[in-house]
Amino acid sequence: MNENILNQVYAYIDSKKDEIIQELITLASIKSVSDENSVVKPFGQGCIDVLECMLEKGDIQGFKTRNYENYVGCIELDNEASASIGLWSHLDVVPEGDDWLTPPYSPTIKDGFLFGRGVGDNKSAAIGVFFIQQALRDLNIKTKHNIQLYLGTNEEVGMKDVEYFVKNYEVPKFSLVPDAGFPGVCGEFGRVRYILKSRNKLSSQVKEIGAGMAFNIIPNHAYVVLEDNGIDLESIPSNYQVTQENNCIKIEAFGKSSHAAFPEGGINAIHQLTTLLCNLNLCENDKEIFKFITHVNDDSYGTFLGFNKTDEISGQTVSSGTVLRFNDGHVELLNDCRHCVTDTNDRIIEMIQKKSDEYQFDVEIVEKSKPSYIDSNGEIVQTITKIYQEYTGNEHKMFIGKGGTYAGQIPNALATGIVLKGKNPKPEYIKPGHGGAHQPDELLPIDGYIEGIKLLATILLNVDEII
Which of 269, 333, 361, 426 could pair with 321 in a Cys bridge, judged by C-beta atoms 3.0 to 4.6 Å apart? Predict the structure, then answer.
């Protein structure tokens, strides 16, 4: 790619820095948690509002826009080409949770960072690509392909948005998904989301129990309300919070939230809670139920359920129980599994069902997707890796991702980044378990974001030349 053209694009992005951040603030001010059960279809009013907001920005800039039945939107830089490159972002976010330093939907600039739910995952990609489109148009840089920005609304919940699109509409010739780190991932782990449901009811001593908000978040809080039938409160360790009301006690357990794809950095509050419950003065039926849930979460690799596996191509399978629900006396544990590319959905499900049956639990498979893999020695992967290494001076290479992005659902797609990390160290006042995607105090390093937009533009222009 011509160095002069790239320098023009870089200068353009730098000149728009303040405008880029303000546009992102506008977008991140909209609460857009995808809700498949909403009466407003397909995924709730918040997702419709944020999609319409972004498409209106495209209309104002004079781009072609299209709304695909509120599942997906598209803003297109039309170069009258016969084929297109798609860049996919998602506008839905995970629930905000608690314990924020700043209001999650009032994005705040502080110390070189932008704080707010969705500023990193993944509304930053939508705004970043949108300004790359403007740069190419305003600088009169003609690409071989039309450049299409796709805007999803259900990525965090089940990706039914992109499933709908792929089923009903033509996909681009090639797609980039700026929802991973640079240089990118050349494949994705397989996924199985499943619910374990106790066949037996808990006793009447258990009045309430719950934890977690979403499949893909390791919960940092779990609680149970028990009828006080002579429970020895002094035996409960001090790291649990105990309150008494009438003839009941409420026990709260605390952990550290993290993305379910990367559970090693988290502490699962469900495991903290059920471990304690196994040692309290409860009936044997209740203890057996809690014992199974505890063992499921003894590690984050599916060991107890029998499908722990690692391979040289992709790495370690992960699986965590992330949401605990109480339904008519029955306990339900929602689980998120990402398995290595040499494993299969069918084997994982078979092992889950076999072990669950032993402990009188039923299994509901909520979602599954096969692993994907692009040849790491192919021209596209090698080109993007080289661009990243030359731009940053780092030797990082692509790997197989656990995060689960649209790239695993769209033919001819590869996930890459939107933020160049390392430009701004995380502030010291950000507590452990805070600051990342899906965590309280989600933050975006502004300088790293601007550099990431420029790097993504470089990748896009080079991919445009070689595909």
Answer: 333
